[in-house]
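no rush on this but wanted to send it before i forget. what follows is a protein written twice so to speak, once as letters and once as C-alpha cells for the fold. mainly i need to know what kind of three dimensional shape the backbone takes. thanks a lot i owe you, the record is right below.
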Amino acid sequence: MTDREIPEQYLEGYARILAEVSATGRRLTREELTSRRALGEQAADAGHGLRALVSAHLTAARATWPTTSGSADSALAAVHQVIDAFAEGYERAQRQAVRQEEAARREFIDDLLYGRSDLGRIAERAERFGLRLSHAHAVAVAQGPTAYEEGDPIPRRVEHALISRFGDRSILLTTKDGRLLCIAPGHQDEVLAHFAKQAHAATDGGRVAIGRPQPGPGGVVHSYEEALNALELAERLELEDPVLRAADLLVYPVLTRDRQAMADLVRNTLGPLTTARGGPQPLLDTLTAYFDSGCVAAEAARRLSLSVRALTYRLERIQKLTGANPADPAHRYMLQTAVIGARLLDWPAKEL
C-alpha cells in the first residue's frame, strides 16, 4: 500500500503537534501520546500496513518541517515520539487480534472435536480455518513423552514440515490435551502419513494413530475418537508399532463390544491360572509371547529370556491348569482371544 492510500484520519493533529513542538521545544503531552496510540490501533484494525503508515508520517513531517534555526532537534524528537506511540498502539491492536483469533480457533476446535455445537454451524465456521466439512476427513493424533501446546517448538516444527511439502491443502494442525492433531481431507492419506513421520521424529519416538476417513461435519469427531481409541489399545496391548491405523485394529473394538461376554471368556478360560504358584501373570506373559511370536517356541523363549525347555514347561503347566493346549489349533483361538481380552480388560490387575 502506498503513502497516498493512507487516509488522512490517521495523521489527524500530526502537523499541529509538530508545529507547536518546533516553536516551543516541549515534549508531547500524555493526551497527545494517547491519541497517537488510539490512531495506531484504528489503523491496524483497518488493515493498513505499518510500513506504509510510518512512511506516511515521515512524508507529512517533511512537508511541515520547520525552517527556524534550532527547532529541527525538537521536531525530530516529536516525530520519534509520535511514531513510537503510533506503533505501540498498532502492535497492541495486532496482539489483541491474534489473541482473539487464537481464542476463536480454540473454541472451534473444542466444538469440532467434542460435538458441542450445531453441526451446521460448525461446518460454516470450519471454512474460516480451511476445512470443508461436507467432504470426508481423517484425523491423526500424535502422543509424545510430554504434553504439547500450540506455539511450542515441536508443534511449530511439525507444522512447518507439512506446509513446506503440501502448502495449506485444507490441513488443520493443532494441539488437544497435550497431543498433536492433524485434520486432513480423507482422500489425502499422504498428508497424514507425512504428519505421522514428522511427529514421530519430532516427539523423540512418540506414537501416532490415524483414524479412518469419515464423512460429514461429525466425521472429524468419529475419526478423532478412533485415533484416541487406537492409542489406548496400543498402550494396553503393548503394541510396538510407532504408527497405528484404526482400520487395522477394528477387531479389538469388536472383541470388547460385549464387555460382559469377554469378561466371562477371560474368567472361564484363564481363571484357573490364578492358582499357579507366583500368580497368573508369568503364565499370561508366556501365552502373550508365544502367540506374538507365531507360536514358535524358540522365538517366544528368546523374548522372555527363558530356555526353550523352561518355556515348554510353562506351556505344559498352562495346559494342565486350563485344559487347553496352546499348540493345538482347536484350542489356540480361544486361548489367544482370552489373552487379548485379559489385556484389554487389564486382568488380573482389575477384578472382572
